[in-house]
Amino acid sequence: MALSKLSEWRGRLRIGSALVLLSFVTTHLVAHCFLLVSFETADAVRRALMYPWRTTSGTVLLATAFVVHFCNALWSLYRRRSLRLSRWEGTQLALGLSIPFLLMAHVVGTPIAEATLDVTPGYNALLVVQWMLAPWLGLLQITAVLIVWTHAMIGMDHWLGTKPSYSRWRPLGFAFALLLPALALAGYVSGGNEVLREARTPDFVRTSLAQAHITAQTLATSARRSQIGWAIFVALLLLPVVGRSVRSLSHRRRKPAMLTHAGGRSLPVYPGATVLETLRAHRIPHASVCGGRARCTTCRVMVTEGLDRLPPPSSLEAKALTRIGATAQTRLACQIRPTADLAVIPLLAADAGAADGAARGGLAGSERPITVVFVDLRGSTSLGEAKLPYDVLFILNQFFHEMTEALARTRGYYSQFTGDGLMALYGLHTADAGAGVIEAFRGAREMLARLDRLNQNLRADLRQPLQIGIGIHHSEAIVGTMGPPRSRIVTAIGDTVNTCARLEGLTRDLDCVVIASREAVEAAELDLSHLPLREAPVRGRSAPVQFYAFATAADLPEI
Ligand code: FES
C-alpha cells in the first residue's frame, strides 16, 4: 500500500512539476516575442515576467520542479520492465531526456553566470554571443525551444485528453501551442538580424559584451562548466541503464509467472512488470491512452483467472475503476504486476481513444439505455462479381477504415463487423440519452461525408459509387462484454438491436440514407415535425416501429 501511495504521489509530483516548468517556459517565450518590437521592450518584459522566478522562493520552486521532473523520468526509465513504448510515449521520453543536454549551455551561460560571474546579459549581449561569437549556440537554442515546447504540449495534450470538456478547448489550445513558439522564434530571429546589422557599427560588439560584463574569461568558464554539466548529465542517464541490467541479471534464474492473453498466447511476465508492459514486450497491441498512469482506463482488462492472487487495486487504480463503474473482475493492465499466473481479456480495442476510456459499465453486462447504429454497404455482392478478391478487400478495407474513423471522431464505439457493414454503439460514455443519439446523428453525417470522399478517390475502380444505409435506434438493451472466451467484444443484445437492424434494412426499401426511430429522435429532443412519421412491422415485436427517413445527408438535422 505504501508503494501505491508513493506512485500516486509520484503522479502528482510529475504533473505539478510539469506545470511549474511550463509556466516558466511560457513566460520566457512571451518575453522573446517582444523582440519583434525592440530590445528595450523585450528586456523590460523579460525583467517583469522573470521577476517572480528570480526571487529566492521562485528559484527554489523552479529548481525543485526541474529536479523532480528529471528524476521522475530517470525513475520511470528504470522502473519499466520493457522499453517497448507506444509512439507518443517513446517520443515524449526521448524529447524530455534530451532537454537538459540542449539547455545546459544556456543555463550555465545566463542565470548561473549571472549569479557567480557577475555577468548581466540582456538580449543584446546574448544575441551577440549566439549569433556572432558562437552561432552553434544559437542553433542549440532554437532546437531547445522546439523540443521543450513539443515535449510540453504532448504532455499537456495527453494529460488533458482524459478530461471530458477538453475536446471543446483543444482547438484553442492547439492555436496557442503553435502561435507562441512561432512568435518567440520570429522575435529571436528578428533580434539576431538586428544584432548582425548593428555589428557593422564600430565597437558595437565590444560595447555590448562589456556592458554585460562578458569577457573571454567568463565565456571560457561557462564553456568549461557546460562540459562538466554534460558529463554529469550523461552519468545520470547511465544510472537507470545500469540499474536495469543489474536487475535483469538478478531475475534471470526465477521462474516467471505466465500471462494468458485472450488471443490464446501464454507470455512470461518479467518480475515487477505490469500486464501492459508484458503485452508490449511481446508486441501485442493494447490500448493505453495515458501511457500507464491510471487515468484513461483504456487499458482495462477482465481477469478471468488468478484474480485472487493479485493484490487489491491501489487507491489510484481503485479511483479510476470506480469512475467507470467497473466490476470486481476488471483491472487496469497498466497497474497490475502479476506474481502468479494470470489470464486476461482486453475490454477495449487496441486503438481505443480517450473517449472510449470514458465508457462506463459495458463490462459484465447491464441493462441500460443505449443508441445502436447499423451501417450496411449496399451492393457489396455485385462488387465481388465485378472485381478480383484482392480489389474487393482493398475497397472494403478502405470503406471500413473510413467508417471507423467517423465513429472515432464522434465518440461512437465500433462493436462488431456484420459482413458488409458494422454495428456501433453510441452513448456508452454518458448517462445522458440525448447526447448518445446526437453523436449518432453526427456519426451518420460524418460517415456519409467520408463515403463521398472515398467514392471520389476510388472513382476509377468503381462501376458505380458505394452506397450505405444507416439505421439509428435508441432504447434499453443488455450491454456488456460478450462472445466466445477468446474473442469477446463489447456489444448489445435484445430487441433494440433487432429493431435497429430492421431500420437499416428499410433504408434500401425506401431508397434513403438514414432512418432513425421515433424513440431516438425523442431522446435527442429533435424537432422533425416537417418530416412524416412512418411505421413498419418488426418481426418478433407486436407493435410496429415508428421512424423518420432521411433521403440524403443534407436532410439530416443540423446538430
Ligand atoms: S493506460 Fe491509461 S489507465 Fe492504464
In short:
The chain is an alpha+beta fold. It has helices spanning 2-33, 39-54, 56-79, 87-116, 123-133, 135-160, 166-198, 204-211, 216-251, 275-281, 315-323, 354-357, 380-386, 389-409, 433-457, 495-509, 518-523; strands spanning 257-261, 266-269, 300-305, 330-332, 342-346, 366-378, 412-417, 421-426, 467-482, 489-493, 514-517, 534-536, 545-550. Strands 6, 7, 8, 9, 10, 11, 12 and 13 form an 8-stranded mixed β-sheet that branches. It has a 5-stranded mixed β-sheet with strand order 2-1-5-3-4, covered by helices on one side.
Describe this structure in words.
The chain has 559 residues and is an alpha+beta fold. Bound molecules: FE2/S2 (inorganic) cluster (FES). The site of FE2/S2 (inorganic) cluster has 14 residues, from loops.
Order of helical and strand elements: HHHHHHHHHEEHEHEEHEHHEEHEEHEHEE
Q: Can you give the helix content as a percent range?
A: 55-70%
N-C termini distance: 48 Å
DSSP strand tally: 13
Based on Cα principal axes, name the global outline: globular
Structural class: alpha+beta
Task: Give me the oligomer status.
Answer: single chain
Number of helices: 17
CA-based gyration radius? 29 Å
Largest sheet: 8 strands, mixed
Provide the β-strand percentage band: 5-15%
Ligands in the model, by name, code or SMILES, are: FE2/S2 (inorganic) cluster
Give the averaged pLDDT, no decimals: 88
Runs in which pLDDT lies below 50 for 5 or more consecutive residues are none
